[in-house]
Structure formats: C-alpha cells, structure tokens
Amino acid sequence: LTVLNAGRRYLKAEDLSGKVFVTSGLGGMSGAQAKAAVIAGCVGIIAEVDEAALLKRHRQEWLMEISNNLDHCIARLREARKNKIALSLGYHGNVVDLWERLVRELDTTGELLVDLGSDQTSCHNPFHGGYYPVQLGFEEGKQLLSSNPGKFRSLVQESLKRHVAAINKLADKGMFFWDYGNAFLLEAQRAGADVAKKGANKTEFRYPSYVQHIMG
C-alpha cells in the first residue's frame, strides 16, 4: 500500500509497471519490501549487507533474484524497466554504493533510472549494527563495531552524509524519496547531511514521511 500510494501521489500513476523503486533492508519488517515491489508491479532493487537476510527472503520466494554485482543489477534494472516486468532484485552490498552508481548513470547517460526511493535500514539504532557504513564490508564493519565503536560511529555518520548526497542528486532530477519511519532522516540530520526543508523549522525534512504524507 505504501509503494502504491507513493506512486499515486508522487508519480500520478495507478500503474507502476516500468517504474523503479530503490530501497534497502531485507531483515525484520523491511523484508516485505521485495514482495511489495512485485505486488505493486514495479522493479524493486533492494540492497542488503547481510547475505543471510538475502538468502532467507530468496528461500521464502519474497525475493526473486540476488546479485552482488552492480553492473548486473543496472543491466537487469534496465531490462525489466524497458519490458515492464515486475522484479525484486536483492543487491548484496551497501545501499550507498547502489545510490552512488545510480548517480553515476545519471551523470554519464543523462538517464534517471529510479522513480521511487526509500530506506529501511535500522537507523533507530545506527551505531550498534542497525546501519553499516559503506567504507567497510559487512564482516569488517562487525569487527570494527566490536573493537572500536567510536570509529564505527564516525564512519556511519560519514556514510549517512554520502547516502543523502546521492539521494538529493537523484531527487533534484525527479526521483521521489520518502522516510519509512526508521529515523533515517533524523540520524542523517544529526550526522550533518543536507535533509532540512528549506524555509522551514529544524524539525521539518525535505522528504515526506510514509505515515503522515503517504498513508495518512
């Protein structure tokens, strides 16, 4: 319902076939995102750093495909988008790499490959394993979290700034991003990312909330 309503409200589209939804998180409640993309009829690319979560969703048949190769992900995205095929593709890697690759595609080809975007990393708990920084692999991140939590925290905040910078570039070209109630925008703001709504008070963000603006 969230994906469908986002399409209706922000794309003015009842039919999401050929539209692309990019997000992250396939553990816990976020695991439903892959299934939601297919039910909505769009192309869903969902990043997840934890291979166990990806494999679980694939076994459940909530996730149709898995890849750890961004070239392959972009090729599949283009193919499914062109042919208007519903697809849920799990990218085994950090979502920041995925967003930055989409920016690179925009910069080199002029093509905006994503229509809708969100995030379901556990940003309510970003410094204790809810969000893994792009600068490190998953296992390296776990080791650093254990050995040097202060350094881990610093890398998370740097990663959040890169995360938002990529989203902002795509949003400026017409991609619609929303907060999924996971404190992503709040923690990004605390990290110093550019998420404030221009001309508004500090508690208002430039991107909508699924509760207030989409489902509400």
TrEMBL record:
Residues 2-214 form the Urocanase Rossmann-like domain. One of its GO terms (molecular function) is urocanate hydratase activity. This is HUTU hydratase. Coiled coil: none annotated. InterPro entries: Urocanase-like, Urocanase_central_sf, Urocanase_Rossmann-like, Urocanase_sf. It comes from Elachura formosa. SUPFAM superfamilies: Urocanase. It holds the Pfam family Urocanase. GO terms for biological process: L-histidine catabolic process.
